[in-house]
């Protein structure tokens, strides 16, 4: 939180206001997490569970992204430099 506050103040001093918004939001979220931990130490378990869910979703997203890149590569193979235009077969994205 100290590093976030330092970064925020330096950006603010240099009148880079737009860049301060995400830092301010993150600092506020950290502050809320600290307050929730003070009230209930088991809140840490909630934070860990949220992080695990985020990691699982992130891994799924990367897998889908790889599949998309493979299909895109196949579509690029249809085009060859200096080739006259021909009607292409009808390709459907799945």
Key attributes of the depicted protein:
flat; 94 residues; 3 helices; mainly alpha; single chain
Q: Could you please describe the fold and organization of this structure?
A:
The protein has 94 residues and is mainly alpha-helical. It contains three helices and no strands. Helix 1 runs antiparallel to helix 2. The longest helix is centred in the middle third of the chain and has 34 residues. It is flat, with a radius of gyration of 24 Å. The protein starts with a helix and ends in an 18-residue tail after the last helix. The mean pLDDT is 76.
Query: Helical percent range?
Result: over 70%
* Secondary structure tally: strands: 0
Multimeric state of these chains? Answer: single chain
How far apart are the first and last residues' alpha carbons, in Å?
45 Å
Helix-strand pattern: HHH
Identify the overall geometry. Answer: flat
Q: Total helix count?
A: 3
Strand content: under 5%
Main beta-sheet annotation: none
Whole-angstrom Rg:
24 Å
Mean pLDDT: 76
Provide the fold topology.
Elements lengths: L1 H12 L3 H23 L3 H34 L18
Outline of this structure?
This protein is mainly alpha-helical.
């Amino acid at each position: 939180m100290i590093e976030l506050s330092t970064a925020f103040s330096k950006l603010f001093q240099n009148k880079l206001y737009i860049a301060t918004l995400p830092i301010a939001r993150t600092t506020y979220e950290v502050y809320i997490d600290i307050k929730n931990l003070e009230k209930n130490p088991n809140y840490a378990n909630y934070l860990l569970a949220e992080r695990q869910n985020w990691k699982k979703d992130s891994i799924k997203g990367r897998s889908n992204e790889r599949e998309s890149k493979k299909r895109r590569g196949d579509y690029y193979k249809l085009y060859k430099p200096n080739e006259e235009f021909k009607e292409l077969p009808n390709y459907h994205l799945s």
